[in-house]
Fold this sequence. Notes:
This protein has about 725 residues and is α/β, with parallel strands linked by helices. It has 25 helices and 21 strands. The protein is globular, with a radius of gyration of 25 Å. The protein starts with 5 loop residues before the first helix and ends with a helix.
Amino acid sequence: MVRNNAAVVIATRPFLVSFYILILFALNPSGNPAVFAIMSTNNRNTNNTTNTTNTTNSTPASASASGYSTSSRTSSSSSSSLPLKMATRVDQVVKRVSQKGDEWRSLPMDTKIKLLEQIIQNTIQYRNEWVACHQSNLLFAHIDNDDDDDDDDPSSSTNDKITRRTRLMNNHGYAMVDILVRGPATLGSYANGILDSLKHNIQKNNNDGRPPPPVSTRTVGGGPRISRHGVVIEDDVENENGFYPEKIVATVWPSPWSLTQSLEAFGMKAEMVCDVQDSAMLQQTHDSYVQEHNSKLLVSNNKNVGCSAILAAGNFDAPTDLLCELFIKGRVCVYKANPINEASIPILKKILKPLLDLGYVEFSPSTSIEAAQALVEHQGIQEIVFTGSKATLDRIVWGNSKEEQDQNKAKNTPINTTPVCSELGSVNPWIIVPGPQWNKRSVDDHARAMVFAKMSNNGHICVSPQVIIYPKDWKFRQLFREKVEHWMSKHPGTVAFYPGSHETHQSLQQHPNAKLVPYGNPKKKSRGHDEEKQQSEPIFPGEQRPLFIGDMSLENERDQNLLRQEAWCPVLMELAIDAEDVDTKPMEYLRKAVDTANTNLYGSLSINILIDNKTMRRNKKELDHIIVHEMPYGLVGINVWPCYVNSMSQVRWGAFVGTDESGSGTLANAHLYRNVEKTVLRAPFRHLPRKAIQVMDPKKAHLVFSRFTTFKLKPNIITQVGLFAALFLGI
């Protein structure tokens, strides 16, 4: 689709962007730099070791991510075994919130818009406090077990240790970046995406109250049956050739009418693959979407319209699931924070105060196991929104023991029939497709991007890359390995805060091909305090240095098991496969690589394909067909980490429809598309923002992501100029 738009022209002309930045920055030199004070507190969070992680079986390491114990259920009799006081308190909360359901659904759209705008303003107001809270938690994470080898004075007090760690966190590690991204930045981006959709609903002449229409649509012809581990996924009716019907691909982001979106995208775009044959049926109105979605749940569980129970993740703190349930699905909520993030509950209550005051949202009376169990078993809950592992989900739905689960699955008699919208994690492949534009520069660029993605949040991310797949005889294989290890050594690391990840990290180091990559000494000497010097030892107490495990084998039982386990820590594994005629038949190789991932790797959440522009152009139709019909993943990245979808409420987030290893159900999709199977995020092979934002210098990264957070909370030209000034000029 050709778009004669100034935003697009600027976005495709880097020199114009630089000129644009310099002019606007000169007009507003402050650029809203979002410099904020870092606060510390002596109030320790003693609950961030509540969860445990199972690293001995094929389930992801995030087994207790929701705070629901994997051994909490003593019998299938459920609530009768709960402490009466907690069960009663949860019951009271659910009943109060449920009574507000009809009122919320009938609330005028402009009132909902005002509530969401106030939430965004509250996030801006309490951003510093939110960041300081998580900083304090990370500072305390290892104080008890810290040998203080770097402190000359053995009598150093706790306050001295906090002061030292504050300097380390601010000046070296990526902890501050992680805090910003998993909290205020993502919440701002997500909320503003929903806000744009809601505002479009009340505008006049907008196609009968529908959300923003797609930028463009195209139809991709029918494809063969998709199976995963031998089980057929798609159940559509075949035509006489054994192919399924065509599907519609809708380009959703960026909007050609938004200058800030076009500049932010810089050639990147987000698409959704919809199992719809008639483009007139592609989207729904807000009212029809809410009515249809709730009607399906009513039929499935035969309950009165109630509320959603959200069991929040521990690796993430932005309550995006709550915003989705309220403003997209139209349901009131009870929100149970994860014990890891318990300290931030008072701040979240300040941010969500408009909803709490009106009774549309309440927090669970506790983050405990008992509260979680009471919530998921309450008859007033219409849907459970759960982030964790499949093992924990099986205990919620099918029973406590493996024997009980197997029996109930065989009889199809779940102990809990409440529908669950779940996100369970995955072993995520990054597939490299050789082509004519691969060279030393592009190898370095994509290796750096991969390491940046892996090290983000210390690997405590469900879409973190884990397995690199490429041909055994690829001419750049050795160079790519060297560059991955090089950028691992340059990354300053962050705080490993998730329970159980240390055990997994230690276990993976025992692999005979595992290489622990130390922090290398940069040529540039640092100034100031001795403890701020970059050095070969880990910066943070308890830090996990990245691991690279080469030459994984599909014939080795040990490696087979590792490929079925979500690492949940900073590790990358190399899986080189046999492939012939890759240069002349790249799509044949890609099909083999995708099939290798489908067959041997756990989960169906995300996949990333690194492919050069010439190869894409030469094989455009066939590549499109493979992406749409032959990749059973809910999130597909083309030259870009699909994790960015998590902050984009306009598109769908979740596992591939029809699979269950990585969860089921749909989150986000604020533009209300029907029958969405997957989200595809595309970027050019050489993408300027990739290198600009994925910097290894901690101070610059802190500056960039501070400005990034400001832009996401308040997206406009001025805040974007501040972001670009940090990205390209370092100011």
